[in-house]
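Example record

The entry below shows one chain as it appears in the dataset: sequence first, then structure tokens.
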Amino acid sequence: MTSTDVLRFGLVGTGPWARRTHAPALAAHPHTAFLGVWGRRLEAAAALAAEHDATAYEDVDALFAACDAVAFAVPPDVQAPLAARAAAAGCHLLLDKPVATEPDAARAVAEAVDAAGVASAVFCTLRYAPAPAAWIAEQAAVTDWFTGRADWYGALYTPGDDAEVRASTPWRAERGALWDVGPHALSVLLPVLGDVVEVTARHGAGDTVHLVLRHASGASSTATLSLTAPRAAAGSTVELRGPAGVFTMPSGGAAQESLAAAIDVLRESARTGAAAPCDARFGLRLTEILAAAERSLTADGAGPRGE
């Protein structure tokens, strides 16, 4: 591996997030060399690579062999086995959320990272956006929180929303808001309120899921997650309540700015050997909690979508 002053990066994925966020951020970062792209369709990989003077790879293992680090912008259950292979090849991992939708698959990634001694970071956006990240760190230093809530109301399936994202990411329709925006909610609540020791989930309208969480600190929290909210009702809020009052998380920044910060975190972890706060092990824990919530939904019975 080369010096972590400049990491040679490969990108796995050619969809909207890869084109709009990952590839531009990798190409623009002053401490990365964007080497190549692999996708399930070689022509799509070639088109994206050509935009950034990179190379399209037909063989994903050849991409891993050429790189120091790999960023992933593919569905979670495509990501997990490829990420484990990349770690075994000695690549640091910049993972998308969720790492996987099955705990065993996420655990295999974490174990591959540990076995290879590589660095990992999961791109839970708000953990890297400057204002939210600073707010999370500030609130995590407080120890007497009473309760919190994290609400993500997306309108991905309302007329006029991003049709390209809907068409290119069918896993979101299949798995719903629990798995798409659930990692965002948990990635903010856990560092502040502590690990989740109990979760109950119930269906709402559309794909909406309501979570009630009990944390190791003794605090409780709730989360409402949806991709099917009316457009006028869309938005996200994180709120914490404790003896000092009510505190609301500031809004996030641009996705490329957050990804650049995630690259910095990965570089620092690779340089020092210290685990990143939001690493593959943290990603595994998110998958475990969301899988427990899904089991709770199953016990609850069919929701409005007939699931």
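Notes for this example: The chain is about 45% helix and 20% strand. Residues 7-124+255-278 form a domain with the Rossmann fold fold (CATH 3.40.50.720).
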